[in-house]
Each structure stands twice: as structure tokens, then as C-alpha cells.
Specification:
The structure holds two protein chains of two kinds. In chain A, strands 5-6-7-3-8-9-11-10 form an eight-stranded mixed beta sheet, with helices on both faces. In chain A, strands 2-1-4 form a three-stranded antiparallel beta sheet, with helices on one face. Chain A has two domains: 214 residues, Rossmann fold (3-Layer(aba) Sandwich); 95 residues, no CATH class. In chain A, helix 3 crosses helix 4, helix 4 packs across helix 5 and helix 5 packs parallel to helix 6. By secondary structure, chain A is α/β, with parallel strands linked by helices. The two termini of chain A are 32 Å apart. Chain B is an all-alpha fold. Chain B folds into two domains: 73 residues, no CATH class; 223 residues, MetI-like fold (Orthogonal Bundle), CATH 1.10.3720. In chain B, 78% of the residues lie in helices and 0% in strands. Chain B contains twelve helices and no strands. Classes of the chains: A alpha/beta, B mainly alpha. The interface between A and B is medium-sized, with 33 and 24 residues. Chain B: It is a multi-pass membrane protein. Chain B: Keywords: Cell membrane, Membrane, Transmembrane, Transmembrane helix, Transport. Chain B: It is found in: Cell membrane. Chain B: It comes from Kribbella antiqua. Chain B: One of its GO terms (molecular function) is dipeptide transmembrane transporter activity.
């Protein structure tokens, strides 16, 4: 079967700075793919490029294809993109507190998602469907009449999820959907996201910096650093046998595995946008860096499983 | 909601009380004796004293104040020291004229500012947005009376399309009423519209940056429908505030514009009162203007609640 989402050679620039360079990414039907990395690694920009909602002055180049849409998404005009957004492709953003219109009842905001694309016959049907969607995210029917400020962050994020899933999109993109939430409601929202995409056989692209979340939600993972994909593969493979030194550092810095080892940090900080070193973008923070790292490492492995590192970690040492 | 209403009403009453004291006190400390002015410089001291007694000006200021205030509450504005005519009916007649002017001016301002401000915000980095910005900047700098004189020169003197001045009540001749209303309304409204445009622009710019507008776009709304359905109400809150404040400016502008266009409104009544030294008339007109401004701002406060559900405490 062909991929639901296929991103080829995606490059995002703002004026003279390159923020994302040459990203390849595919998501298969019903597949749940994680996109991880520190802030500033280009994860969100990658997602916004797919959606065509980059901020002003930020320009995407390359190719983005989506199943069910017969045109290229990069550079498509507003008229065409507006038919794709919310219908074939939906997104849940990081900040639930500000993602909903404060002056509109949430029921109307959910119903609107269906009315825009005429996926329901009329207003009455849209409201009935909205009640149904609320039920799926475990919110009572009375929530229809509530305004966003009357709901908690977790409740609001469930509303955003409900309206994102309203038209059974082929692909759902979630950008740090639980980062702004209390730990106690994170698990519920994650569970509802997974249930939601599974029930619709939608594919999921899940952006986060939380490795534990990726481990529970996703099947495959891409690691981004400095606007590039530095490693990718099945979650189990990448998390237990990382090859790229950045992935290795990221894992050591998280408490994913119950090691007796103390958590270690990656030395240094993520450089500001456009100031990453030439060659391997990680070399100024990498303990293993040598002269050869000033040339860009080539991709080793297959399109879906591989890494880009001159001095990869030995498979045996972590096996 | 009820709590807010009570609170706002209390604020309104307090402001009315304070402003009435200020208006009264200001007129009281002005030099010059109304009775002396009314009778002329050659009148005898006895005649002046007699008139002072008639007007009640010989009583303590506090008594005079409460007398005046009590009259206002009953709708009795007193009797002019100069013309000896009742002031209430004059103010009532003139107020209707000014109300037409102010409302028409406000309509012009809104019709100009809402689309222009929105386009300026949506195209704030493009040439068309910057051009509109420059025009509105120019508009802000032009005083209403100058705009009025320019309009008269072009449309009345040069082109002869509109009467240069005058006023006809709408009931008497609606067509003439409208013809005569156009230029005063434009000269009042265009300048205010230019000011308001800048507030609309910043309010819309603010809303355009909001996350919920991105959510609306992500749902599949195109930029303009997204702004229309999700932005307008949110952007309206700061704009309504400015609109309320502008009403005061419009009333003051009307005073001048009425003079330019020879319109028998509250403004010309005020100016007549000033030149005739008709102190009580001036005092009453000023107080009516103050009441109008305070009432509008009270209504603006209530309008917030209608616009923004977050202010409806305990609504669920």
C-alpha cells in the first residue's frame, strides 16, 4: 500500500537562514510515527509545512504528498489547501488554553469543522455529530454549550482533538499535545488520541520531546536535530540500539529505561536557528566528533531505518 | 452579570455626581455676575440685587447646587438669565439635531475604519496596507473643521452638488435633510474614522496572531472567513472601548462643525450661550454633554459582557 504522507527533501528557510533541511519522512496507512528532538530541532516547522500554515516570511520547498489529495501540498494555493486542511489532514496543537475561540461555544466550534467541509447534511446533523464526538473524548453532552474558559486544559485539548478528528482525516498531526497538560491528564489524552486514530484507521504523526510518550504511542520514530533527520527506525530498535550519537545522548538524558546510571546531559545547548555547524550539525556537542565530521555524514541504511553519523555507536555495546 | 450591572451603575452614578459638582463649581468660580451681565453695565446696584434675588443667586452656593441638581433630576433645566426662556425645551430640540450629527459621524467613522483597518492588518507588510496606513495617518492630522471647510469648497462651491450649509428636520424634507447631513457627517466622521482605523488595525493584527485563528485555518477556513467568524468578535472588544471614548471627541467636534455648517445643534446653543454670557444655559448644556458621554461609556461596559463570555461571571 502507498504511504499516507510522503515528504521528500523538505527544506524550510526564513530569509537567509535554513531552519529545516532536506527532510524525508513517510507515514504509512494507520501507522503511528513519532518525531522527536529538542526544541529548535525543526519538528514543529516540519508539521506546519505539511499543513501549509508556516508563519509569514517562512518558506518551505520540497515535496509533500498526501493520500486522497491529487496535488502537491507545498506551494498549493489557499483555495486548494483549505480543502485539504481539516478534511484529509488535521492537527492538534501544543497549547490548548489558547487554541479555541474564547467567544464561541465549543459545540459550535466542533460542528463548524464538519460544516466547513460539508461532511454532514446540515446544522442539526453537525450538532448531533459534535455530541457524538464529545462522547468519544469522554465529555458530557452539556459541554456543547460551554465556553472554553469554563473548561480545564485537559478538557480543552480533548475538544481540539474532537474537532481535529471530526472529518475522519487520513492523517492526524499532534504537536506536543500533552506537554502543556498536568501529568494526571496526560495519559488520558494520549489514550484518546491513540483510540481516535485507531478507530478511524487514520495515520498519526506525533511530535514530542518526551521519549516515554513516543514509546507508548508510536511504532516508528524519527529523531531530528538541527533541522535534519539524524536517525530513524522502529521505536524499539532506535530506543534500545541507537546508532547516532545524538540519539544516544537523548536516551541517556531521559529516564526511559530504569538504569542505575545517573542521567547524563548532552553538553552545550542547541544553537540558535541558522547557526548550526557545517557538516554534521551535532559535531560541536559530540564527544566522538573528529575532523571528518566537518563534512556532512551520508545516510546509512534504508529509507525508513537508518542514521547519518560518521562515528555511529556500535550495535553490540547497547544490545 | 447582575453584580457587574450593579457595580457599573454605581460607578455611573458616582461619576455623574462628581461631574455635576465640577461643572457647577467651574461655572461658580468664573468671574462676572450673571445679574450684572443681564442688566448691563449701567444698571443700578439695587436693580442688580433685585435680579440676583429673583434668580436665587443670593443664596449659599450649596443651596444653589442642590436646587440645580434637583431640577436636572426632574428634567427642569431652569430659566435663562438672559432670555428669561425655559432652557429645557431648547436643549431637547437642539440635542436631537446633534444626535443625528454624532450618529451619522460615527457611522461614517465605522464604515471607513472597519474595512480599512482590517485590510491594513491583513496586508501590513504589503504596499496596499502601507498606502492605506499613510492615508489614515494624514486623516488623523486633519481637524474636523478644516475637513468641513475643504468639503464645502469642493462639493458646494466648486461642484455645487450639495448645499453649503443649513439644517432641515428629517420629518419636514427627508431628501434635503440627507443632503445637508452628508458633509457635516463626513467632516466629523472621516477624521474619527482615520483614528479608529489605527485601533482596528492593531486589534485585528493582535487577533491574527492568536492560536485560535490558526486552529480555524487548520479546520479548513480560508484566511478571510477565519478572521470573519473567529476574529471579529474578539477584535471588537478593544475597538468598542475606543468608540466609546471617541464619542466625547465627536460631541466636541460637533460643536465646531455645527458652527461651520450653520446647524442649530447643541454646539451652536453652547456657543450662543457663551457669547451671550448666559451662564445657566452653558452650565446645562455642558452637563448634558457630560451625561451623554458617561451614559455611552456605561453602555460600552455592558457591551463588553455581550461580546466576551469570559466576563459573564458564573455563567454556565
Amino acid at each position: 500500500m502507498s504511504d499516507v504522507l510522503s515528504v521528500r527533501g523538505l527544506t524550510v528557510t526564513v530569509r537567509d537562514k535554513t531552519l529545516v533541511s532536506d527532510v524525508d519522512l513517510t507515514v504509512g496507512p494507520g501507522e503511528r510515527v513519532g518525531l522527536i528532538g529538542e526544541s529548535g530541532s525543526g519538528k514543529s516547522l516540519t508539521a506546519l509545512s505539511v499543513l501549509g500554515l508556516l508563519p509569514e516570511d517562512v518558506v518551505a520547498a520540497g515535496s509533500v504528498q498526501l493520500t486522497g489529495v491529487d496535488h502537491e501540498l507545498i506551494g498549493a494555493d489557499e483555495r486548494r489547501m483549505s480543502r485539504v486542511r481539516g478534511r484529509h489532514l488535521a492537527m492538534v496543537f501544543q497549547e490548548p488554553m489558547t487554541a479555541l475561540n474564547p467567544t464561541m461555544r465549543v459545540g459550535d466550534q466542533i460542528a463548524e469543522a464538519m460544516l466547513i467541509h460539508r461532511t454532514v447534511p446540515g446544522r442539526r446533523a453537525a450538532r448531533a455529530a459534535a455530541v457524538e464526538l464529545l462522547g468519544r473524548v469522554q465529555l458530557p453532552r452539556e459541554t456543547m454549550r460551554a465556553y472554553p474558559h469554563q473548561l480545564s486544559g485537559g478538557q480543552r485539548q480533548r475538544i481540539v482533538l474532537a474537532l481535529a478528528l471530526a472529518n475522519d482525516p487520513a492523517l492526524l498531526i499532534c504537536d506536543e499535545p500533552t506537554t502543556a497538560l498536568d501529568v494526571t491528564v496526560q495519559a488520558l489524552v494520549l489514550d484518546l488520541i491513540v483510540k481516535g486514530v485507531v478507530a478511524r484507521s487514520s495515520a498519526l504523526l506525533f511530535i514530542t520531546h518526551d521519549l516515554a510518550v513516543v514509546a507508548t504511542v508510536c511504532e516508528r520514530v524519527l529523531v531530528m536535530y538541527g533541522g535534519r533527520v539524524v536517525e530513524s527506525g522502529p521505536v524499539e530498535e532506535v530506543f534500545t540500539r541507537p546508532r547516532h550519537r545524538y540519539t544516544e545522548g537523548l536516551l541517556a538524558a531521559s529516564d526511559l529505561e530504569t538504569n542505575e546510571r545517573r542521567l547524563t546531559t548532552i553538553p552545550g545547548n542547541v544553537p540558535p536557528a541558522g547557526q548550526f555547524p557545517s557538516g554534521c550539525v551535532f559535531r560541536n556537542r559530540c564527544r566522538h566528533a573528529t575532523d571528518v565530521c566537518s563534512t556532512a555524514p551520508s545516510w546509512t541504511g534504508t529509507a525508513s531505518t537508518g542514521f547519518a553519523c560518521h562515528h555511529p555507536a556500535e550495535v553490540t555495546t547497547h544490545a | 452579570m447582575v453584580l457587574r450591572l450593579i457595580e457599573r451603575t454605581a460607578v455611573l452614578l458616582a461619576s455623574l455626581a462628581v461631574s455635576s459638582v465640577l461643572v457647577f463649581a467651574f461655572m461658580a468660580i468664573l468671574p462676572g455676575d450673571p445679574a450684572r451681565v443681564a442688566l448691563g453695565v449701567n444698571a443700578s446696584d439695587e436693580a442688580v440685587a433685585e435680579l440676583r434675588r429673583q434668580f436665587g443667586l443670593d443664596r449659599p452656593l450649596t443651596t444653589q447646587y442642590f436646587e440645580w441638581l434637583g431640577g436636572l433630576v426632574r428634567g427642569d433645566f431652569g430659566t435663562s438669565y438672559v432670555s428669561k426662556a425655559a432652557i429645557g425645551p431648547q436643549i431637547f430640540d437642539r440635542f436631537q439635531v446633534t444626535l443625528w450629527l454624532v450618529v451619522a459621524g460615527m457611522v461614517v467613522a465605522l464604515v471607513v475604519a472597519a474595512p480599512a483597518g482590517t485590510v491594513m492588518a491583513a496586508r501590513h507588510r504589503k504596499v496596499s496596507g502601507l498606502a492605506l496606513s499613510a492615508v489614515s495617518q494624514l486623516g488623523v492630522a486633519v481637524p474636523a473643521f478644516l475637513a468641513g471647510i475643504l468639503l464645502i469648497m469642493v462639493f458646494a462651491v466648486k461642484l455645487g452638488w450639495l448645499p453649503a450649509n443649513g439644517w432641515t428636520p428629517p420629518a419636514q424634507d427627508p431628501a434635503m435633510f440627507l443632503k445637508q447631513l452628508v458633509m457635516p457627517a463626513l467632516s466629523l466622521g472621516l477624521v474619527q474614522g482615520a483614528v479608529l482605523t489605527r485601533y482596528v488595525r492593531s486589534a485585528v493584527l493582535e487577533v491574527l496572531r492568536e492560536d485560535y485563528l490558526r486552529t480555524a485555518r487548520a479546520k479548513g477556513l480560508r484566511p478571510f472567513p477565519a478572521l470573519w467568524r473567529h476574529g471579529v468578535r474578539n477584535a471588537a472588544v478593544p475597538v468598542v472601548t475606543v468608540l466609546g471614548l471617541q464619542l466625547a471627541t465627536l460631541l466636541i467636534g460637533a460643536v465646531v462643525v455645527e458652527r461651520v455648517f450653520v446647524i442649530p445643534g447643541l454646539g451652536s446653543l453652547l456657543l450662543d450661550g457663551v457669547s451671550n454670557r448666559d451662564l445657566l444655559l452653558v452650565q446645562d448644556v455642558v452637563m448634558v454633554l457630560v451625561i451623554a458621554v458617561l451614559l455611552v461609556n456605561f453602555l460600552v461596559d455592558l457591551l463588553y459582557v455581550a461580546l466576551d463570555p469570559r466576563l459573564r461571571v458564573g455563567s454556565r
